[in-house]
Design a protein that fits this description.
Low-confidence stretches: 1-21
Structural class: mainly beta
Number of strands: 21
Largest sheet: 18 strands, antiparallel, barrel
Strand content: over 45%
Mean pLDDT: 91
Shape: globular
Helix content: under 10%
Order of helices and strands: HHEEEHEEEEEEEEEEEEEEEHEEE
Number of helices: 4
Radius of gyration: 25 Å
Distance between the termini: 26 Å
Length: about 500
């Protein structure tokens, strides 16, 4: 029934859109030459400037990934089946509409020390045990937006709902449900014949209900509520097998972009988050997390010849997390809150840049990009003292090529990333060196402190189809030798 509903929705969305014969080729050419510019135009009021043509893209894809070395909380690999529909419409009177539907059914292997969804968002205050296992997940995303122009001013609105559920059919039996709902409002003004200035506001609400159940008490592990570096709240360890998370995200963004993708680009974004964790049947908020993220990007793109463009870009990102724990005293089955204490803190900084050259001809288009970045990460837990500190230097290169064959288009892309840890320091004194938690911390530290070479190759070919316009088939493979990580994916879809 669920699959039938998805197919019906796909058919309905695709039937509402018409496009010109060159829609697919126009989209692929634009993506190839402007792939780095998307963050600058990431505001509803700027959507039209970064979408060259009306289209609907309906596709289905499968991906498989496996690794020998991995972060235990994230698993050793996955199998994923995804259905996606994206559509953009230009209506009369300067009105634009767009929407997306995405369904992802996946299985994650060998997850341990983590019994919650959205690990990276909720870290370090997750619910965990030492058994774990494979997880089955379903994700649903529905988003839509509109923009309307009045003279030189454009107003934009976009909203997204993301729902997730996760289960495990053997002990420990995980039953998790999470939901995100966000709204973005933006306004853009064309300040002269070339440039636009836009302002955006984001509001988001997050909720998750996580529960672990057991059919048998034989060999039942303790369910614990992590607080960072393998530490956990000992008062809640054991039978407290559920938790609820409530998060609020808020953000501001300022964009400066050209109308023709040539000239100066700039974007500054701030996002803040407040996350509360509660335990069922307990009145108090057990943990609180406060996040601050700031990002600035600056770029410039110029035409060096009739069909050639040169692009430069730089970025700076700073992230901070402050974790607060409640302190309690239990007496006669009553738990009284004694106060709150900031014990966990983390921060990161990332600075980098790139240069890209793009060439367009009648029969082919290609680009080549080189980039580098420096990343610094620090985490500390005050009592007992635990901390890690990393510095990384990254290099990247990418080569893309589109080749026309009559009405067909062949797309090729190769990506290489090199990551080298410059410094890595860590200590955790909460556990003996022969404990399972010490082994987990050591594994995750060694995973990050590994020089890695990432190589990816992808290809896609399109065919004209009567009444359906364009069919495309694609595949991609990735390999990271340091982790013995292999990734393989295939996709097939239509563009209308």
């Amino acid at each position: 029934m669920r699959l039938l509903s998805i197919i019906s929705l796909c058919t309905l969305l695709c039937a509402t859109t018409q496009a010109q014969d060159s829609t697919y080729i126009t989209l692929e050419q634009y993506k190839l030459s402007n792939s780095k510019l998307r963050p600058y135009y990431d505001a509803p009021a700027l959507k039209k400037l970064n979408t060259p043509v009306t289209y609907t893209d309906m596709n289905i894809s499968y991906a498989h990934e496996n690794a020998d070395q991995y972060m235990w909380q994230k698993g050793s690999g996955f199998n994923s089946l995804t259905i996606n529909i994206t559509s953009f419409l230009e209506k009369k009177n300067n009105l634009n509409l767009w929407g997306e539907f995405n369904y992802d059914n996946n299985s994650i292997k060998d997850v341990n020390f983590n019994e919650t969804l959205d690990y990276e968002y909720l870290y370090p205050y997750i619910m965990a045990d030492t058994v774990g296992g494979n997880l089955r997940n379903e994700h649903y995303t529905i988003s839509g937006g509109l923009s309307k122009s009045y003279n030189n001013t454009t107003f934009g609105l976009e909203s997204t709902f993301l729902g997730k559920q996760s289960i495990r059919n053997r002990d420990p039996r995980t039953q998790n449900i999470s939901a995100n709902f966000n709204v973005t409002l933006s306004i853009s003004h064309q300040i002269n014949s070339k440039y636009n200035l836009a302002f955006g506001v984001l509001g988001e609400r997050y909720f998750q209900k996580a529960k672990v159940d057991f059919k048998s008490d034989l060999g039942r592990p303790n369910i614990v509520h992590e607080t960072g570096f393998g530490n956990y709240n000992s008062l809640l360890a054991g039978t407290r097998d559920n938790s609820e998370y409530l998060g609020y995200n808020y953000g501001l963004s300022l964009h400066f972009v050209p109308s023709d993708q040539l000239g100066w680009f700039a974007v500054a974004q701030y996002t803040g988050s407040t996350i509360d964790k509660r335990i069922k049947d307990l009145a108090h908020v057990m943990n609180e997390a406060y996040k601050d993220n700031f990002q600035f990007q600056l770029g410039y793109k110029l035409a060096v010849a009739t069909n050639s463009k040169l692009e430069f870009g730089s970025h700076y990102t700073q992230q901070k997390l402050k974790g607060v724990e409640g302190k309690y005293h239990i007496e006669q089955s009553l738990m009284a809150e004694l106060g709150k204490e900031n014990l966990f803190n983390s921060s990161s900084k990332n600075i980098g840049g790139y240069v890209s050259f793009q060439q367009s001809n009648r029969q082919n288009d290609w680009f080549i990009t080189f980039g580098s970045s420096y990343l610094q990460e620090d985490e500390t837990y005050i009592t007992p003292v635990s901390k890690t500190s990393f510095e990384f230097f990254n290099l990247s290169g990418q080569l893309g090529w589109n080749q026309k064959f009559s009405k067909n288009l062949l797309s090729l892309k190769m990506t290489y990333n090199y990551s080298n840890p410059l410094t890595a320091k860590g200590e955790w004194n909460s556990f003996s060196s022969n404990s399972y938690r010490y082994e987990m911390l050591t594994n995750n530290f060694n995973y990050k402190n590994t020089q890695a070479d990432y190589l990816n190759f992808s290809t896609k070919v399109s065919f004209p189809i009567p009444k359906l316009q364009t069919l495309y088939l694609g595949a991609n493979v990735s390999y990271v030798s340091a982790y013995e990580l292999t990734h393989f994916g295939v996709t097939s879809g239509f563009v209308f």
